[in-house]
Amino acid sequence: MRFPLFLLPFILLFIHSSPFTKAQKDDLIVRTCTETNFPDYCISSFRSDSRSSTADSKGLARLSIELALATAQNTLSFTKDQHKIVPNDDMKKRLADCTANYEDAIKYLAKASTKFESGNYIDAAAKVSKAITEAGKCREELRTPPTIPAVEKKCDEMGYACDTAFVIISILD
Question: Between the CA atoms of 111, 113, 116 and 122, what dihedral angle is there, to the nearest 10 degrees?
Answer without folding.
Answer: 50
